[in-house]
Amino acid sequence: MNRTVLDLWVGLFVVAGIAALLFLALKVGSMNTVNATDSYEVVARFENIGGLKARAPVKSAGVVVGRVDSIQFDTQLYEAKVTMRVNKRYPFPKDSSAAILTSGLLGEQYIGLAAGGDSAMLKSGDTLKITQDAVVLENLIGQFLYGKAQEGSPQ
Amino acid sequence: MQTIWGWGGAMLRRALENLGNRTIQGIWRMGFATRFFFAVLMHSGTAFRRFGLTIREMYFTGVLSLIIILVSGLFVGMVLGLQGYETLQTYGSEEALGVLVALSLVRELGPVVAALLFASRAGSAITAEIGLMKATEQLSAMEMMAVDPIARVVAPRFWAGVISMPLLAALFSAMGVLGGYLVGVQLIGVDEGSFWAQMQSAVDFEQDILNGVIKSVVFGVAITAIALFEGYDAPPTAEGVSGATTRTVVTSSLAVLALDFVLTAFMFRGLN
Hints:
The complex is a heterodimer of chains A (155) and B (272).
Chain A: H1 3-28, E1 39-46, E2 57-60, E3 63-74, E4 79-87, E5 97-102, E6 109-114, E7 126-128, E8 130-132, H2 137-152
Parallel strand pairs in A: 1-7, 2-6, 5-8
Antiparallel strand pairs in A: 1-4, 2-3, 3-4, 5-6
Chain B: H1 2-42, H2 45-49, H3 51-61, H4 66-90, H5 97-135, H6 138-144, H7 149-188, H8 192-202, H9 205-233, H10 238-267
């Protein structure tokens, strides 16, 4: 086979392969992974994180603003310590609150950030004071049954 | 009685000798393969200085494997679309079809199935070619002319395989996603927006796509190294070459699957 034809085919092959990689990177996956340089770290403590996992999204008003970096168990306070990375483009007030929410009925769990009213902004390494735990189905049913029992009991 | 004991002892002795011989042979072959691999790496200069040689081999290993890779990718994606839809539908979450198709292709099926096809399409060809070159004493003739066959014949094929493999795996995954899209969205009627949007929010560039690329590079190294070694080590007879070709496909397929498990265990262990 002619040398130039061969070169052309290999060139086409390489271009197609790189195009496939780009397609995977841009169309199939999302390039907007939160890396250490353009994000700040926020810590929140929860008594119960339910099914939250590392890499779960951190959303505010439904928009993904960051990701959960790591989840540790604090043996001093017996609480879960959730570290998340929030994109630097989204500064949040110091008194913002974090809640563990569920997308859909059976969907994955994520952290919902609600902005507070403080004029000072969160810095890297700050801890969120106000948090709301994940809803545990068993507790919810227990409360419901307890309420029902109280309703029915003669006063 | 005495003779039976003697007979049994001789049997045992022969079995032990056989086992020892096999072990020594196996270790010797492994050492030879390792030295061969390092010799290929050491003599890789020519493969890059005269890149035309490598390009020529990329045509044979990469471009000629395109058809089988693209068609298989398309069909694997289409089957994933159909089967995934059947299962997801029972949970009322058909929109997650894109996530299922993309993640299974990018993380596992793309690199692994492309590598298995590559091993049987290109690996066997490499072994047969080099084995035949050795059988017809072309390699010895090169040595006589002071041309190092490892630098001139083996190294370009090695690098061509290592470069081609990730490109082929990426093409396989991309075609698979397109196949899943064709069946899921165009044929069955899953909502197009949520198909792509859920896929994009679930597939991470570093965790999923980059790890898939790393996998395919490792598979490329393993397959071409095994194929080249089997060819170079083949007994210079018709039988020897055919046996070596078979061994290439079997060994490299097993190596791909075993390496895939090891790599997956390292890559996705820390996720949860």
